[in-house]
């Protein structure tokens, strides 16, 4: 009998990428219930009776909304994660893989951040609530493994991008916001304005790659230890804006607004565990992933451009 796979956050960026690989899984959205509510979460697990769970659901946002609503991001994500893992333990789920975030880690100016740094120092203040909630998800995963033998684990991708991303001009992540802003600048003939100095360094991973890796992790859970999913050593936002402009065929000017927030100057992660867990895995090149993402955006922009969604 085929195992039942349950995917929380089924309507999100990664949920859509997972759907392309395992369309027969059950994909939960907010219409199925509020995962912040323990009773609703328990009802869902009791009804669906999953064998394995990919826990992707989270309250997420960009640098601006994280800084403005730190307490909300902490409370909502703590509730979601606690309820999902507790219900999975109660209903004897065979294996569960949750999604951590690079926001949970501290970062260093002189070296990349590794898996062993997760609980060393506080996360960046601008996303303290979200980052600490993700740290608690790591701790809960480990405690359930140790006390109850739950085969639960996590993976930590750097910032994801791809089709079905969130495109809000103020509250989305930098890459999707830049694509949306570039589109408007091209349509209006105006300058493309990028928040910050352009010198911040970020890493990006294609959602299709993360989908393949999280499914592979769920097939053989070896330990509760998280593994970082980072394809390279990062790119300056200035260079990223240029690549996006090229993909969008934007010929106008690009201006960097230093009065706007850009978060930490350098956020670079590097995995000690990835080569052992996923030998020979090849990540999608940024240029290729951007080409696919831009193509999807241009085909679907009428459904969200100008709406703030």
Annotation field: number of helices: 10
Number of strand elements: 12
Report the portion of residues in β strands: 5-15%
**Corresponding CATH superfamily of the domain at 5-165 and 204-231 and 267-283:** NAD(P)-binding Rossmann-like Domain
Structural class comes to alpha/beta
Roughly how many Å is the radius of gyration? 19 Å
Mean pLDDT: 93
CATH fold assignment of the domain at 5-165 and 204-231 and 267-283 = Rossmann fold
Largest sheet: 6 strands, parallel
Uncertain parts: none
Query: From the 3D coordinates, which CATH architecture of the domain at 5-165 and 204-231 and 267-283 would you assign?
Result: 3-Layer(aba) Sandwich
**CATH secondary-structure class of the domain at 5-165 and 204-231 and 267-283:** Alpha Beta
Give, in order, the helices and strands: EHEHEHHEHEEHEEEHEEHEHH
The helix content, as a percent range, equals 40-55%
Distance between the first and last residues' Cα:
40 Å
- Write out the strand line-up for the largest beta sheet, numbering strands in chain order: 2-1-3-4-5-10
Principal-axis shape: globular
Q: Can you walk through the features of this model?
A:
This protein is α/β, with parallel strands linked by helices and 309 residues long. It has a domain of 206 residues: Rossmann fold (3-Layer(aba) Sandwich). The chain is 41% helix and 14% strand. The chain has ten helices and twelve strands. The strands form four sheets. The protein has a six-stranded parallel β-sheet with strand order 2-1-3-4-5-10, sandwiched between helices. It has a two-stranded parallel ribbon with strand order 6-9. α1 packs across α7. The chain is globular, with a radius of gyration of 19 Å. The termini are far apart.
